[in-house]
Amino acid sequence: MTAGVGALDQCLARLAHEDGVLVRVDATQGSAPREAGTWMAVWRDALTGTIGGGQLEFQAIQAARALLDGGEAAPPEAAPLRYPLGPSLGQCCGGVVFLRYERIGAADAGRLRRELTEHLRPVALFGGGHVGAAIARLLSTLPYAVRWIDSRDGVFPAALPAQVHTEHSEPVQDAVADLPAGSHVLVMSFSHAEDLDIVIACLKRLRERDDLPYVGLIGSRTKWATFRHRLEARGFTAAEMDRITCPIGIPGITGKEPEVIAVAVAAQLLQIHARA
Prior knowledge:
Layout: H1 7-15, E1 20-29, E2 39-42, E3 47-49, H2 54-69, E4 81-84, E5 96-104, H3 109-115, E6 121-126, H4 130-139, E7 144-150, E8 164-168, E9 184-187, H5 192-208, E10 214-217, H6 221-233, H7 238-241, E11 244-245, H8 258-275
Parallel strand pairs: 6-7, 6-9, 7-8, 9-10, 10-11
Antiparallel strand pairs: 1-2, 1-5, 2-3, 4-5
């Protein structure tokens, strides 16, 4: 995989000029290297993504290339194939993986973009600055669908990863109301006033629907202390304000570079998902 470029972007770029085979984990039983929905694209001379490596992936690559070549050993496209992860595969996971094979071409690009992003974890990222851009780039290589929001025109780059969608919202906090349930929210706009408005909108939504599992605000403890006083004056309780994470990112990473902050924030999101 090219550094900093998500597997989906690589797949769609290659699909524009070359047919491939999409191999998806359709279901699993017991212990398995990857979960249902995991995929890889197999080309005649390359791979994009992974379904977990090992002998399972080796056999899947052989089957996919047989499908590309139209050989007798080609797997069926209509139904998944069953792979027991035991002695016959030389893998000691002990479970069973069901793989589905599909030949794909340029005409499938739009559909695949939708299908391969619809089960990703939603993140709402408020702020089109340097840190926001670093986070968007990094999350596009991880299992997240990013909704990147700003009140300013012309702040987003022209070329975006397939997993990132931009949105102009003025006032910016209005976008909070229609975020998908379960969204993880990151607040890092260009002004503290906008940050406060977004946090207030998130707290109101938590009060009404309680469907935002994480709201993170970039900033120092001093900034958060100031915000807490202002939120308290607006009637929010201590328990409600405790739903906001500030500073953001896992503890112990102290660098201020946008890319360093992005790594710390991405790690925190992954930890939250693992705990859930």
